[in-house]
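Morning run. Coffee first, then this:
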Amino acid sequence: MTNSVYSRLLSPNVVYLKNVDWYRSQYTLKNLQKCLNADSIQILLKTKHFLIINKPYDLVLYDYHKTFRTTKTLFELVKEKFPYYFDPRLTGGFHVLHRLDAVTSGCLCIPLNYFSQRIGFEAFKSGNADKYYLALVYGHVKLDHVDKDGFYELNVPIGEDQRRLKYARCTPYDLNGNKIEFCIEPEKAISKIKILEYGTYKSRDCTKVLIKPITGRRHQLRVHLKYLGHPIVGDTCYGIDDFDSYRTMLHSYRLNIQINTKQRQFIKAKAPDPFLPEIDSDWKPCKLVNNLNI
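And here it is:
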């Protein structure tokens, strides 16, 4: 074990998950365990068939590999709040429609029964579901050939990183077209990116962006932003070892799902923007490029 890895293990502000990413917190591990409870789960929308919550960052949905070291998973917290929706026959106890990485906060839709899960799956499969994310990324992003709404479309495949199978992903070539030999089984991946603001985070140039994934590959947004040379602030898997950042700055901001195509019925939710200077004083915007108006 290197000195740098050993020092991270000893750091009171680092939570380590075996074979997963490093997850930082502004709390010690002991305090992190204390602060996560059922009241940590903000309900954005609840209907007869769907529950949309504002997922806290640094929290797995359920314990996939029995390696998470905090006392609770997201589904355990949801079970405490809504025990009557828990189904022990299901993995994690709840139906899953889509996923958020452990490091990502924001909108997460939980179907409350098999029927609603099937409706949700059909919406995603047919393109009748839209997800929008917010991120703070390093550098001042420059995008050419944006559409009328200010979005730049990035169409770059994503595959498994042979050096870190199951834990990291990559593109088959870099921004200059050079082939990446360790990328295997690449699949089509498309993301739309819109610049919102330029500013600084802890005195480093940063950009606030809005991202709309068109496809749903694992780690897609994180890999695409790294491909552009603008990794997400705090993303130690794909970016820089900036353990001073208390979280990975990626947030599921808005979710729209059409649940009835004939009557054009939607379920919609928006999770409050956490990347505001009044919430995080280290983020200092200096130039507005596009308004956040979705």
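DSSP finds five helices and 15 strands in the chain. Good start to the day.
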